[in-house]
Amino acid sequence: MFFQIFLHFVSNLSTIAVGFLSVIVYRIPVLKKYMENAHQKKVIFGKQKNLPCIAPLLTTVEETPKIISAQVRGHVPKWLNGYLLRIGPGKFEFGKDKYNHWFDGMALLHQFKIEKGTVMYRSKFLQSDTYKANSVHDRIVVSEFGTLALPDPCKNIFERFMSKFELPGKFAGMTRNYIIFIEQPVKMNLWKIITSKIRGKAFSDGISWEPQYNTRFHVVDKHTGQLLPGMYYSKPFVTFHQINAFEDQGCVVIDLCCQDDGRNLEVYQLQNLRKTGKGLDQAYNSVARSFPRRFVLPLHVSLNAPEGENLSPLSYSSASAVKQADGKIWCSYENLHPKDLEEEGGVEFPQINYGQFSGKKYRFFYGCGFRHLVGDSLIKVDVVNKTLTVWREESFYPSEPIFVPVPGTNEEDGGVILSVVITPNQNERNFLLVLDAKNFEELGRAEVPVQMPYGFHGTFVTI
C-alpha cells in the first residue's frame, strides 16, 4: 500500500519528481543496444564491512495521534513557521501475516508543526481501503508489490492489478516548454503480473531488468502535446529520482540520480534489510550506487547535421550528444560530483530550492548519502564547482532533506535544511534536524520520545 501512496505523494512534491513505476508502466518498446560507450565507467558496487543492524528502523510502530511537544536543543529560527509532512511505511504485519517488501508496508503520516521556535509532533496511519480491509480481517487480504495475499472478494484479478499500477504523474522531467519521458530498460510483464496469484508469485516477479536495451529520452512539447522527432539514446541505466531540468541554448538539460543496474528492488526485501553481520554486508554490497549525472538533449537537429560530432553547444558541460549514421543521437553524461561522493555511497532523494529554481539553471542540490541500505548522511552538492559538504552523526540515519528558503531571499542556498533523523538505539532519541543550508552546520534539533520507521518523502507547507 505504501508503494502506491508514496508514488502519488512524490508526483505532487515538485514538477520534476516521478515514481519509478510510473515510467515503466508506459514503457515504449526499445531498440537493441547499438553501441557501447567505452569512455564512461560503469559504477555499480561499493564495499562495506561490519555494517550496524538497522532492523529497528524497519519494524511496525504505534501511531501518535495526540500532539506532543518536542524538546528543542540549539535553536529553530523564528521565521520558520509551517508543517513538515512526511510519509513512509510504518506497519508490516496484520495478525500472523507479514509483508515481504519494504514498499508493501502501510503508510504512516508524520507531521512536525514548527512555530516561533517550537516544534510539535504527531503521526497517524493513513486510513486507506487496504488498511481498513486488512484491519477488519486481521490479516493481509490485498496483495502488494512484493507480497501475495488471498484475493479481495470484491475485485476480479484485473481490477486488482489496475488498482496497483494506474499511477498519476506520468512525466519524468519538465522544463518551461517540454516534458521529458525516460524510457528505461526495465520490463513489466503484464501476463506475469495478472497471473501472479495462479503462479503463487508477487507482482514484483513480473518486473525485470533488461540491460541489452538502451535508455531512451522522449521529449514532448508541453503546449502542443507533440513528440519531438529527435531520437535520444544513452547507455542502460535506471533512475528513481530526477534532480532538475531546464532549457539552455536550444537544448534540454536534465539532471538525474542514476544507477547502472536495475535489480536493486530485489534487495529491498525486508528479510535483507533486517539482516545482521555478513548477511547485511552482502546485501549492501550487491546494490548499485546512485550518482548524479547530466544529459544534454539538443532540440532542433538538422537533417544535415554532421555525423560523429558533438551537437551540444554548452561550453559549461562535458555531456555530449552525437548524431549517428542512422539519425539517432547518442547521449553521454557528465558526472555532477567529485570522486569523494563514491566514498559516501552515492546520493539519492535529491532536493533543490524548488520555489525559485525548478525548471531553471541552478547550482546546488541536497540529498542523502548511502553508506548503508538506508541514508546515513546528508549531502550538499555544488554541481558547478563539483564539491560536496557532508553532515553525519554515527548511528543516526537522516531522511530526505527538505530545503526551506529564508523569506525574501534571492540566494539559492539562503535557507535551512530539514531532515528527520532516527536511530535504532533505544537509549537515543529521534529528532528533527535543522541545518543552515549555506554551511551545513547544525542550528538546532527537536527531539521526540517516540519510535519512528525510516521513511522516504516529505514536503514543507508554510503557515
TrEMBL record:
GO cellular component: mitochondrion
Top-level lineage group: Eukaryota
Keywords: Dioxygenase, Iron, Lipid metabolism, Membrane, Metal-binding, Mitochondrion, Oxidoreductase, Transmembrane, Transmembrane helix
MF annotations from Gene Ontology: beta,beta-carotene-9',10'-cleaving oxygenase activity; metal ion binding
E.C. number(s) listed in UniProt: 1.13.11.71
CC cofactor: Fe(2+)
Keyword Ribosomal protein: no
A Pfam family this chain is assigned to: RPE65
Main location: mitochondrion
UniProt-annotated location(s): Mitochondrion
GO biological process, one term: lipid metabolic process
Catalytic activity: 5-cis-lycopene + O2 = 5-cis-10'-apo-lycopenal + (3E,5E)-6,10-dimethylundeca-3,5,9-trien-2-one; all-trans-zeaxanthin + O2 = (3R)-3-hydroxy-10'-apo-beta-carotenal + (3R)-hydroxy-beta-ionone; (3R)-3-hydroxy-10'-apo-beta-carotenal + O2 = 4,9-dimethyldodeca-2,4,6,8,10-pentaenedial + (3R)-hydroxy-beta-ionone; (3R,6R)-3-hydroxy-10'-apo-alpha-carotenal + O2 = (3R,6R)-hydroxy-alpha-ionone + 4,9-dimethyldodeca-2,4,6,8,10-pentaenedial
Listed transmembrane segments: 6-26
KW Metal-binding (keyword) present: yes
Matching InterPro entries: Carotenoid_Oase
Family the entry assigns: Belongs to the carotenoid oxygenase family.
Role noted for this protein: Broad specificity mitochondrial dioxygenase that mediates the asymmetric oxidative cleavage of carotenoids. Cleaves carotenes (pure hydrocarbon carotenoids) such as all-trans-beta-carotene and lycopene as well as xanthophylls (oxygenated carotenoids) such as zeaxanthin, lutein and beta-cryptoxanthin at both the 9,10 and the 9',10' carbon-carbon double bond. Through its function in carotenoids metabolism regulates oxidative stress and the production of important signaling molecules.
The protein's name: Carotenoid-cleaving dioxygenase, mitochondrial
